[in-house]
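User: Please predict the structure of the protein below. I'd like the answer in structure-token form so I can feed it into my own downstream comparison script.

Assistant: Understood. Taking the following sequence of 307 residues as input:
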Amino acid sequence: MEMSTSLMFDRAISQMGITQDRISKTQTQLSTTKKVVNPSDAPDEAATITRLKSAIDRQNSYIATINSVKDKLSQQETAASHASDLMYRLKELTVQAANDTYSAADRKSIDIEVRQLRDQLLSVANTQDVNGNFIFSGSRVGKVAFATNADGKLLYQGDQTINATNVGDQSTVDINRAGTNPFDKLVRTDVSGKKTAVGFFEVIDDLSVALQSNNATNLRRSVGEVEQLQQGISDSLASIGAATNKIDNQAALANENLLRMKSTLSSAEDTDYTEAITRMNKDMLALQAAQSSFAKISQLNLFDYIK
């Protein structure tokens, strides 16, 4: 098989060009620290890298949401915990006042602290976050949770809408809370059997009236009602605690997923310096050898053989 001089030159130049391209690609990988600089370099790996980056962004979004929700839950837990402490004291006073050994004057003295506890509970129920939002108003965060209406009754002004947000794949958590949880109503049954819904603060106001009027019957009724109010706050506190535990577990899972995904991304995307330098040195030696051989071959001609 005959090979023309021009064909031999073209092949040699083409091969050196390919080697130079490999060296240039390796140099780019070393300078950028990325194994895949352009999608065309490795389409399959580029697609994998894109998917991993998208998954990492999603995990980062979950972590940011978790931190925000955790702050909200922390505020709710602090408020509910304080309310629970106040209710325990209110319960103690109610039980004491219902004791037949207490006089009318004693009960009026107890009423002074009961009113103070009632005002403190109202302050807790109307707690605002750093943005001025009321944390126990449901979705009506700009509206005070409990306020006095035109009839002078203290009523809940928020709503029952509870919003949830994603904190992980297939995992959500409530981010707000209605004032009726923990400051819930109760059902009161009178002597005739008639049932009436009574608000949280109305129960405490009725207790105060009973203390002022020295009404032993209503005081005994208040013992059970205050117990129900206190239990409602305890249940709400437990619910907030469970949500907080869920958030903590989800945060740990998100961080583990993030670490694993970043490690996988690094394996797929980052340059292996040892392997890249070894490969570049090999290609540079091959290029130098090819250039040396080409230089010698390019100088040969027919007259060299005639001599």
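That's the full token string. The chain is about 65% helix and 5% strand.
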